Amino acid sequence: MANPTPNPSYTVLTREIQAGTLAPVYLLYGEEGYFVDCLVKMFEDLVAPEDRDFNLYNMYGQESTAPMVIETCHRYPMMADRQVVILREAGAMNGNEINKLAPYIEHPTASTVLVIAMRGQKEVKGKELLAAIKKHGVVYESKKLNDRDIVTYISRMIADNRLNIEPKGLAMLRDFVGNDLSRIHNEVNKLCVALPAGATITPEVVEKHVGISKDYNNFELVDALAEKNVAKAFTIVSYFAANPKDNPTVVTVTQVFNFFSNLMIFLFNPDKTPEGQKKALGLKSDWQLKKYVAAARNYNARSVIEVIGAIRRMDTRSKGIGSRAGQYDLLRDMVFNILAARGNLAEYE
C-alpha cells in the first residue's frame, strides 16, 4: 500500500482517506474552517456507526490534557482494526501542553489514527508537535481562498454537478457568498437540487433559488459605476439602503475597491491585448474583460486614484472616524465621489 502524502492538497488527502491510505497522526489547521470540518467528518466516517461508542473518541482542547489524549490513543480498538481519536479545538491548548504529545507521535499506536484539528488557526501551536508530525504523519493547512480562486471554485463545483452557469449568474453568486465556503456549498446545493443535469444557471435562476435580486446587486452597481450610469447607480444604492440585511455595505465597498484596483492594473498593463489583460487580471473570458474596457473609457489613471481615495474615506468614516453619518449615507457619498471623479487630485491634498 502506498504511503500517505506528507503535505497533501485537499483533493489528494480526501482521496487517500477514502482509499484507506492512512497515517498514524494528522494535523489539520488553517484559516479556512470548512475544509477542516469536512476532513474531520471523513475521519469520523472511518468508524462504522455501530462501532462509534467503542472506537471513535472526540476530545476537546479546552477539556483535555496531553496525558489524557495519549492514554486514549494507547487503547486498542474493540472488534475492529482501528480506532479514531479526534482532538478538536486543539488550538485551545497552550504550546507547552500540546508539545507533550510529541513523544507519542514518535512512537504511535499502530491501530490508532490520531487527528489533531486546529480549526481557524493560522499558525500551529507547539513547534515540537509540528516537527514530530512532519516526520511521522501528515500536515494539512487549510488556506482561505482569494477572490480569484472563489470564482474558479464555484465554477468547478457547478461543473462537477453537471450544470452550466452564465457569467452574470456566477458574479451574483460570488458577490453574495464572498469567500465563505460553507455558504458557497449551501447555495450551490440549492441550485443542484432545483435544476436537472445539464441545465444553465441564469441570473433569474439565482434570483429565484438563492434570493439575490438580479437587478439590484453589487455586480450591477459595479457595472453602473464602470459605465458612469448615475441613475442606475443611485437606484441600486437606494435599494441597498431599503434592504440592509441582504446588502451589507462592507461587502459592497470591498467589491467596488477590488474592481477599481483591477482597473488600475488594466490601465498600466503594458500588454494591451485581450489575452494579456485577462492574464494580468486573472480573468477567464472576454465577457469579464468588457467591463474594464468600458470603464477605461470613463476613468483614467488619475481619476482611478481619486476613486480609490473616495473608497478609503468611506471605509474610514464607516468606522466612526471623522463622521457620524449612517452607513448608506456614506455609501451614497462614496458613489457620488466615484461618479464625479475627474482626476483632479489637488482638491484632496
Give an overview of the whole structure.
There is one protein chain. This protein is an alpha/beta fold. It has 18 helices and seven strands. It has helices at 10-19, 33-44, 52-55, 66-73, 95-99, 102-106, 127-136, 147-160, 167-177, 181-194, 203-210, 218-227, 230-242, 249-268, 274-281, 286-296, 301-318, 327-339; strands at 25-30, 56-60, 83-88, 112-119, 138-141, 164-165, 200-201. The strands form two sheets. Strands 2-3-4-1-5 form a five-stranded parallel β-sheet, with helices on both faces. Strands 6-7 form a two-stranded parallel sheet. Helix 4 links the parallel strand 2 (56-60) and strand 3 (83-88). Helix 1 (10-19) packs parallel to helix 2 (33-44), helix 8 (147-160) crosses helix 9 (167-177) and helix 10 (181-194) crosses helix 11 (203-210). The longest helix has 20 residues, at 249-268. It is elongated, with a radius of gyration of 25 Å.
Total E-strand runs = 7
Query: Mean of the pLDDT scores?
Result: 90
Strand % is: 5-15%
Task: Provide a count of the helices.
Answer: 18
* Termini gap: 67 Å
The main pleated sheet reads as:
5 strands, parallel
Contiguous runs where pLDDT drops below 50 for at least 5 residues = none
**Largest sheet strand order:** 2-3-4-1-5
